Amino acid sequence: MAGARETVAESRTGGEKDARNHFAVRRGLHPRRMAPSRRSLMSRLHLSKTFESNPEAGEIIRSATTAIASILQMNQKVLPGHKRSLISRMIWKITEAHGKYNTQFCSEGALQDADDFRHDHVTTRKNLIDRLMKAPLDFESILKDAIGCTVTTDEHENLSDLADEIIGWDRYKKAGVRVFDRVEQKFRK
């Protein structure tokens, strides 16, 4: 432990770069191969039209779906607001199973020149949760609508401004957001 203290003390006197290197090595990373910044990762996404599946996505989705089924069965001592909050978090897990911005669908704007993305829920979480709370036995079919789409910040604001009655892909049509399917390699009609 003394060696670690000396290294930290030395890195503090050696400047910010040394401190980063120390913590990178301590976390098992090579100091010159530290993870790229969020901005550079996001910039790479809009350059690629190719979807890369996360090999663990199926397990993540199954786990979150099982959690939602259990949450829906909780007794009445659990407040509805708590159930909604827990379900909301699990919906995020489902739609981010391949990565927050590595979604099968993305807007044309995100592909072209965006450098600030948002993860949008094609069918809003509110809509999904409302439906799940009303028909808990239909959770599997309802969760098929839990789809993420990477959009620009401006597009996300436009989509969020739409009335709650407009749901799913109709929101995108109404907002004038053209969507590219990175698996099928074509724009949605």
In brief:
This protein is an alpha+beta fold.
Describe this structure in words.
- With 189 residues, the chain is of the alpha+beta class.
- It has two domains: 1-35, no CATH class; 38-187, no CATH class.
- It is built from ten helices and five strands; from the N terminus they run αααααβαβααβααββ.
- A five-stranded mixed beta sheet has the order 2-3-1-4-5.
- The termini are far apart.
- The model is unreliable at 1-47 (pLDDT under 50).
Task: Provide the descriptors you would attach to this structure in a database record.
189 residues; alpha+beta; 2 domains; five-stranded mixed β-sheet; 10 helices; 5 strands; 53% helix; 10% strand; disordered N terminus
Fraction of residues in β-strands: 5-15%
What is the helix content? 40-55%
Largest sheet: 5 strands, mixed
Q: Estimate the mean pLDDT confidence.
A: 81
In total, the number of strands is: 5
Structural class: alpha+beta
Given as residue ranges, the uncertain stretches (5+ residues, pLDDT < 50) are 1-47
Widest β-sheet, arrangement of strands: 2-3-1-4-5
Number of separate structural domains: 2
Sequence of secondary-structure elements: HHHHHEHEHHEHHEE
Oligomer: single chain
What is the count of helical runs?
A: 10
Backbone CA Rg: 21 Å
User: Span from first to last CA?
Assistant: 61 Å
Query: Any idea what the shape is?
Result: globular
